[in-house]
Design goal:
mainly alpha; two-stranded antiparallel ribbon; two-stranded antiparallel sheet; 8 helices
Amino acid sequence: MAGNNFCVNCGAPLQEGARFCTNCGAPVQAHVDGGATEPTSDASATEPQPDQTQRLAAPGEAAPMQPAGAQPYVPVGPGSPHPQAAFAQAPYARATSAVAGGDNRHRTIVVIAVVVAALVALALVAALAHAWLSGTGTGGNDGQAQQGQQQGDSDGEANGDASRKQEDDKAGAEAEAKKKEEEAEAQEEKAKKESLDQQDSAFHDSLVSYYNVLSDYDARVRDAASNFNASFLSKDMDLRRSLASSCSSLKVELQGKVDSLGKMTAPEGSAWTTQLSQIRQCYQDHLSRVTVMDSAWQVDLRYPDPEPHQSEILGPISAGNLDGSNKNAALDDYEKLYPQITL
């Protein structure tokens, strides 16, 4: 190695003990006996190398043939220990250099890929940070506003449902109250009707009781009239006083009936209102008939002998008769009205 200080491929200086050229990567070849060189790399043990030395032809001798792929050498100069290669490199040196260049390119690609991945990661992180910041900023406000709107809508729907429920409950309560009111009114109407029916029934019974004795009073009035006609000219004062007292008592009794009937009122919607009026009028007719006789007796009792005073005594009776007739007007009315009463 002491005399091999330059690369046989590119002519660059070699470091002491170097196995490859630091300039071109060619393996360093050592000098052997006879001037031949052999590579110092391990690859020379397995792969034969062409002889890259060239013997100079003697004067007048043709240059020896070189093996295929051999590189011609030219002298570098006087005193140069190694010839300079005429071409770039030996085939072996080119293969080794290609391998070394391939490793360099692979490392470059890996570095570029790592850089690109780092840039992509940084861009992704920046995008996520921007999105997060946007979410906490305007986007967050929008989200809160949307959430608030949704909450407001939900509250509005809840309030609407509550309002509708209140309205439904109110309507239901009003309907129930109206139903109860109608039922109460129906019950009241029913009770009122039942009460009126009871009252009307009692009223009818009372009218029947008055009606049933009308004929009896008519007979008593007729008897009083007969007694008056038979005795008003009698000179027996005691008889006339007795008959006059009996007529007066009948008058008081009939007056009581008329007063009682006058106080009676027919129940609402009674079917016996007309009958009340008819029965009341019949009793009034009986009272009128008795009244004129009672007045005639009062005149009659003034005289111990009534006969000379006949016209004066009959004056009240004549006043109660129909015009141009000897029939009492009240009696005529009673005889027409009584048959019309139906109970």
